[in-house]
Structure to design on (506 residues):
């Protein structure tokens, strides 16, 4: 398809002899939200990390706006600045306050002047309701606050797409909601996102597509209702069944 | 005429106080500059050791050679006494390269190179102790490896290794005494000269010991204070959400330019 923002073809990744991703085909259009679910060790994180090249794929293609980012001489740093990532452990820069976390990339990577970077950062910090904390160091924030700043940092780069790797898994239950709320707003505002999550209700609500991964492959993907309510694949059924039993028990 | 111990000490300070002062100044100068330069050597070479492997075979080959050279440097200078290094470097340079420095300059060079060898490993450890997530986050906003090192990793590394660097400084204050073998007029050399002039070994060296002790104690205290300041205050100011953007300052910036 022409209007895919990112299209992935037969992506494989191995660490030494271990094949973690065994041929993944996936695509996402501008404005879409895809959620990736699946058991631990199935390769969800590795898949996300391959998308923004934190892990370099062993083979396959990643087309960004139709161009293969794995070809020689492709400007990887620029591509990464357009594909934002939000980590489970937040990974805010510990040596900088909240505002600097959101401006450093704009100034050093996008070469914006400091004042417009600051204005842009404040806009997004406002959006995640963290503009009161611009002077704070990461160590002075709660997990939920850190994650919202991390989201603002990624947004400040004017990313085309945001990748989330279990953004609420390291949070206290009370603060999960505030982060999910921000992500829902982003989904509604038309931001393209790929989200690895165990929050099924959230996944169902925000996504256009749910992808079930197991053992390094995509077993099943489709509309949330199809996957979560009427899964066809045995492995999907098993996973969801165990998940529901696990959650209530 | 018979003097008591304290009278001798008084005599020495009265007559040779300025000698001691000059020796102390040289000792401080060499150990301070040596520590700073050694720190920079360590920062550079320690970072070089952590350069990422590249996809190009030729680059990797050069990286390997660079790594090997750094390892040789570290092992050689950590595995030999500084006194021997001083003689070999000072006289070696004169004899084989025809370069001669003043003993003080030579002393600074030797202490720098020696400290550098220790700091390479300290820096490498310091870099490794920074959470790998920091580098990943830097990469994820498009920073190159170099940018990530300069803006994210090394500032945190430096904070981590400040105590070890201070320790090196204190060791250097004491170890510059070996530079008397190349006639650097540092504290130990001066002490020996004074002893030679008045033939009072014990009293003269007690004065030297006191000076060394006061130096190291003062430096220890100063470093503790510096570390505390680097940790920063535990509080931060809530910015009012209605505050106009123009009034927001970057820390360290005098006025929002
Ligand atoms: N750097 C690495 N070296 C070797 N093996 C790795 C590496 N990274 C991941 N793996 C392996 O790849 C497999 C998939 O890991 P991955 O983290 O992608 O799973 P996941 O689906 O994200 O799991 P979880 O839900 O627990 O986060 C695991 O078996 C893991 O041990
Ligand atoms: Mg994972």
């Amino acid at each position: 398809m022409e209007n895919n923002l990112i299209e992935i073809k037969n992506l494989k990744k191995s660490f030494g002899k271990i094949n973690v991703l065994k041929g993944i085909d996936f695509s996402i259009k501008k404005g879409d939200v895809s959620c990736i679910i699946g058991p631990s060790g199935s390769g969800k994180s590795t898949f996300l990390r391959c998308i923004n090249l934190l892990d370099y794929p062993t083979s396959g293609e990643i087309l960004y706006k139709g161009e293969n980012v794995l070809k020689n001489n492709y400007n990887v740093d620029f591509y990464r600045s357009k594909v934002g990532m939000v980590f489970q452990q937040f990974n805010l820069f510990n040596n900088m306050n909240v505002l600097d976390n959101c401006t450093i990339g704009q100034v050093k990577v996008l070469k914006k002047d400091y004042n417009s970077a600051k204005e842009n950062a404040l806009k997004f910090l406002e959006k995640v309701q963290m503009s009161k904390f611009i002077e704070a160091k990461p160590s002075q924030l709660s997990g939920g606050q850190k994650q919202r700043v991390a989201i603002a940092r990624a947004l400040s780069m004017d990313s085309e797409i945001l990748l989330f790797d279990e953004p609420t898994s390291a949070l206290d239950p009370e603060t999960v909601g505030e982060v999910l709320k921000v992500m829902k707003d982003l989904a509604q505002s038309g931001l393209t996102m790929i989200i690895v999550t165990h929050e099924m209700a959230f996944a169902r609500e925000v996504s256009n597509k749910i992808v079930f991964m197991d053992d390094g492959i995509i077993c099943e993907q489709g509309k949330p209702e199809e996957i979560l309510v009427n899964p066809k694949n045995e492995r999907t059924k098993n996973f969801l069944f165990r998940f529901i039993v696990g959650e209530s028990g | 005429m018979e003097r008591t111990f304290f009278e001798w000490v008084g005599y020495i300070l009265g007559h040779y106080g300025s000698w001691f002062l000059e020796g102390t100044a040289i000792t401080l100068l060499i150990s301070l500059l040596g520590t700073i330069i050694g720190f920079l050597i360590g920062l550079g070479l320690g970072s070089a050791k952590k350069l990422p492997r590249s996809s190009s075979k030729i680059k990797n080959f050069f990286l390997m050679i660079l790594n090997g050279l750094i390892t040789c440097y570290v092992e050689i200078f950590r595995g030999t006494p500084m006194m021997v290094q001083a003689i070999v470097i000072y006289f070696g340079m004169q004899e084989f390269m025809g370069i001669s420095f003043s003993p003080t300059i030579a002393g600074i060079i030797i202490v720098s190179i020696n400290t550098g060898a220790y700091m390479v490993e300290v820096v490498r450890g310091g870099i490794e102790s920074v959470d790998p997530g920091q580098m990943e986050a830097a990469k994820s906003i498009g920073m190159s490896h170099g940018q990530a090192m300069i803006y994210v990793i090394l500032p945190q590394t430096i904070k981590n290794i400040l105590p070890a660097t201070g320790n090196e400084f204190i060791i250097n204050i004491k170890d510059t005494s070996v530079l008397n073998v190349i006639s650097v007029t540092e504290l130990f050399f001066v002490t020996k000269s004074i002893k030679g002039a008045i033939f009072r070994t014990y009293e003269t060296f007690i004065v030297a010991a006191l000076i060394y002790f006061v130096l190291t104690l003062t430096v220890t205290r100063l470093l503790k204070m510096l570390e505390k300041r680097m940790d920063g205050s535990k509080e931060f100011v809530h910015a009012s959400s209605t505050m106009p953007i123009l009034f927001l300052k970057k820390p360290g910036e005098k006025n929002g330019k």
In short: The two ends of chain B are 73 Å apart (CA to CA). The pocket of magnesium ion (ligand 2) is lined by residues A 44-45, 165 (CB under 6 Å). Chain B has eight helices and no strands.
